[in-house]
Amino acid sequence: MHDLPYEENPNWKEILDRLSGIRDSGDYSHENVELIRQELQSFDERIRGGATLAAEGCLFEPYILDQVISIAEYDDTPAIRKAAIRSLSIVIHEGVMEGMEDEAGADTQLDEAEEWEEFQTGGLRDDYQRVKNLLFNFLEYEDDVEIQELALSALADLGFRVEIRDKISEFLASERQSAKQIALNAMGKYPRYWEEELCALIKLDTPEELLKEAISASYASESAALAKAITGILEHKNPETLRFAILALANINKTENLPDILQQFGLHPDSQVREAARDAIETFTQKNFKQYMREDLGLED
């Protein structure tokens, strides 16, 4: 450890501000990566935690991933372990996007032979497997339920796998509100597997936070059944819930009288709802214009 102990470090606010600025700006220059690498070893848990969060943007730089994995496994401060797990989720996302799984959501073909060769011989496959194994281990054997929840959230991009879907079902059935929310958030990655469960939750009497999570999980679906369920809660009194519902309906784009619905909400007394209606009308217009270009004119987007 290179710096002063926790209670004696006079510059911790300055260092934290810089780490936060790196994360917010996405400026992962050589100098900034070196700072993160250094502060991941800090005695000061405030600084170490900030560096762990900032490391999400440079995990594939030399030695950074090793340090974050070590923090996730062994750090004495639970909050910093959790920050490390949040940062590690990007490895799962990148691995799935690079075709390291054989299911939907993974592009298993690369355009150029040279890219494929580089992909095969590079370190991403090994890094991906290490992180995946670690997160599965947390999911199955960790005593801290919050770490279990974060592990499931980090593995959500693997939601097409049966073992992840089983865990999502288990968390959804939990009495813990946080576990239900994590499950719903994970469902949103592949909502086609969860149409029945989401329809059952999108009701006026569902607790508000769970209702918003269920609507959000439906956002990327193409389900007429989910669109119908969402139209059934448009009498909800909470403007935030209405905002979620309006935007989801526009993105699903499976409601026959959707333009009329959106126009009506454009006159809503709440400004956030009116703004959501305007955004939803724009989304609806763009989606249908693209469909017209493809299906009626035979043109690409």
Report on the architecture of this protein.
With 301 residues, this protein is mainly α. It has helices at residues 12-25, 30-39, 45-54, 64-74, 78-97, 113-121, 124-141, 145-154, 162-172, 177-187, 195-201, 208-218, 224-231, 239-252, 258-265, 271-296. The relative contact order is 0.05. The model is unreliable at 1-6 and 103-122 (pLDDT under 50).
Q: What's a quick, concise take on this entry?
A:
The chain is mainly α and 301 residues long. The chain is built from 16 helices and no strands. The model is unreliable at 1-6 and 103-122 (pLDDT under 50).
User: How many H/I helical runs?
Assistant: 16
The separation of the N and C termini measures 54 Å
Strand content: under 5%
Shape: globular
Largest sheet: none
What Rg is obtained from the alpha carbons, in whole angstroms?
22 Å
Helix/strand order, N-terminal first: HHHHHHHHHHHHHHHH
Mean pLDDT: 87
What class do helices, strands and sheet pairing give? mainly alpha
Low-pLDDT sequence parts: 1-6, 103-122
| Count of distinct strands | 0
Work out the helicity level.
55-70%
